[in-house]
Amino acid sequence: MAIEDTVVRRIEELLDESSQLRRGNEYGQASSIQHAEKCKGWIAAASNIVELLVPDANSGYRRVADRIREHDYGYVIPQGVGEMSEVLTNLLRDAQAGLVASVADNARAEIFDDFLDHAKLYLKQGRKNEAGVIAGVVFEDSLRRVCRKSGIDENGQKLDALISELAKSGYLSATKAKRARVSADVRTKATHAQWDEFDESDVRTTIEFATDFITNHLEG
User: Fold this and answer.
1) Structural domain includes residue 20
2) Angle at Cα 15 formed by Cα 9 and Cα 21, nearest 5°?
3) Global model pTM greater than 0.90
4) Domain contains 209
5) Residue 17 and residue 85: Cα distance in Å, rounded?
6) What is the span of the domain harbouring residue 69?
7) In 3-state terms, what secondary structure has residue 22?
């Protein structure tokens, strides 16, 4: 499941849970200690989703969500759940209109950066094979994500064909397309444990290409 689908699904789950938690007693208070504890946990989870989707602490969504999370509602904490659920409802609309895709790109870029750091470390340690596997995976995943983002159908397509499509679309210059093919070769060889058919310089090219590609097309 894609990151954006996972986030949308989680928001929908939280909204479903809120329908019960936001209901207090006749005075608007939590019906029990357990109810209040569940409300607190729900607000924390909802706040985490808002923070994930809206990194800018000065945005309207973040300001309202942060205020709700930090407010001491006491016995009337179901009110906090109700307020936060309205934030999520509107955020979900924005997410489905395209916001989540952008967030997913940024989230995936951060993960890729971590993986590439590991690949660089392996290469520094002389562990070319391990570095090639990691770098190759990051290369392919980032390439396919950019294809989907640009409207290129990548499902079932080989890497070489996708590189050609990205070059035609202006995402890759002739020089970068050449480097991309070296990276695709490393990905294929590492996948099939053909360790002797690529060297450290090929892995280094893959890491450098993936880093540049992610910075230019996924990070926002």
Assistant:
1) yes
2) 140
3) no
4) yes
5) 10
6) 3-98
7) coil
